[in-house]
Amino acid sequence: MSNENIEAQVVELDNLHEHREIVTFMRRSSPLNTSQKSALEQYRDLILEYPVGDLRQHFEHPERPLTVEIGFGMGRSLVLMAKANPERNFVGIEVHIPGIAQCVYEAGMAGVNNLRVLDADAIQVLKEMPDNSINCVQLYFPDPWQKKRHFKRRFVAHERMQLVEQKLEMGGTFHSATDWEPYAEWMLDVLDNRPNLENLAGKGNSYPRPDWRPQTKFERRGIEEGHKINDFIFKKIN
Ligand SMILES: C[S@@+](CC[C@H](N)C(=O)[O-])C[C@H]1O[C@@H](n2cnc3c(N)ncnc32)[C@H](O)[C@@H]1O
């Protein structure tokens, strides 16, 4: 190979490295069961196609307050929340297809129609939203990325929180929960140092577990392993 060619390849690699986005998830491929397969077809009206633009436009009542859940897993707690709060609109974002299928299956069976889901990176979806348009962003039991070299993938980080804050309405909230103590400390350290956010439990504190937040699959697992659950609710104040 000529020197010129090698040089061109190195430049290409550098560019690739520079532009590669750090994502907060790993796509896992697992098979769908029969009801999940048919749910993707039967309840396809509940599934949005990326790119989606302003999420509010996909609801019969776009003026209602919008909750966006990032990484809902299998979605049961999201369906229960949507059912319990018919006066709000809910959008769940997940990259795990069996989770999308299970969530629409349960939403469809429960007759919930104030909930939409989509398969996408939540970061990209948030970027498409108008500023000050979301009433609540929820992030329950996000991947803790336990190894130091993976810390950059943790969702709660200053650059990602800046985007979340930009998209929240004034007075809107960011609600997270984790069963991983080191991530809880990390979250507090990031969130308590965001000038645009107010810790509703007071600086340095976690929020008492709200009984309106249904238990999630990963929360149940954490409890079974003897982990403490920490909730954090922060309000946008600037
Ligand atoms: C540890 S699981 C928790 C699932 C669920 N919230 C629970 O508590 O059972 C985290 C989920 O977040 C999803 N996730 C992580 N980053 C995401 C992103 N940027 N956009 C969409 N989903 C994401 C992953 O695919 C995974 O299913």
From TrEMBL:
<keyword id="KW-0808">Transferase</keyword>
<comment type="similarity">
    <text>Belongs to the class I-like SAM-binding methyltransferase superfamily. TrmB family.</text>
</comment>
<feature type="binding site">
    <location>
        <begin position="216"/>
        <end position="219"/>
    </location>
    <ligand>
        <name>substrate</name>
    </ligand>
</feature>
<keyword id="KW-0819">tRNA processing</keyword>
<dbReference type="GO" id="GO:0008176">
    <property type="term" value="F:tRNA (guanine(46)-N7)-methyltransferase activity"/>
</dbReference>
<protein>
    <recommendedName>
        <fullName>tRNA (guanine-N(7)-)-methyltransferase</fullName>
        <ecNumber>2.1.1.33</ecNumber>
    </recommendedName>
</protein>
<feature type="binding site">
    <location>
        <position position="121"/>
    </location>
    <ligand>
        <name>S-adenosyl-L-methionine</name>
    </ligand>
</feature>
<keyword id="KW-0489">Methyltransferase</keyword>
<feature type="binding site">
    <location>
        <position position="143"/>
    </location>
    <ligand>
        <name>S-adenosyl-L-methionine</name>
    </ligand>
</feature>
<keyword id="KW-0949">S-adenosyl-L-methionine</keyword>
<feature type="binding site">
    <location>
        <position position="94"/>
    </location>
    <ligand>
        <name>S-adenosyl-L-methionine</name>
    </ligand>
</feature>
<comment type="function">
    <text>Catalyzes the formation of N(7)-methylguanine at position 46 (m7G46) in tRNA.</text>
</comment>
<dbReference type="GO" id="GO:0043527">
    <property type="term" value="C:tRNA methyltransferase complex"/>
</dbReference>
<dbReference type="InterPro" id="IPR055361">
    <property type="entry name" value="tRNA_methyltr_TrmB_bact"/>
</dbReference>
<feature type="binding site">
    <location>
        <position position="147"/>
    </location>
    <ligand>
        <name>substrate</name>
    </ligand>
</feature>
<comment type="pathway">
    <text>tRNA modification; N(7)-methylguanine-tRNA biosynthesis.</text>
</comment>
<dbReference type="Pfam" id="PF02390">
    <property type="entry name" value="Methyltransf_4"/>
</dbReference>
<dbReference type="InterPro" id="IPR029063">
    <property type="entry name" value="SAM-dependent_MTases_sf"/>
</dbReference>
<feature type="binding site">
    <location>
        <position position="179"/>
    </location>
    <ligand>
        <name>substrate</name>
    </ligand>
</feature>
<dbReference type="InterPro" id="IPR003358">
    <property type="entry name" value="tRNA_(Gua-N-7)_MeTrfase_Trmb"/>
</dbReference>
<feature type="binding site">
    <location>
        <position position="69"/>
    </location>
    <ligand>
        <name>S-adenosyl-L-methionine</name>
    </ligand>
</feature>
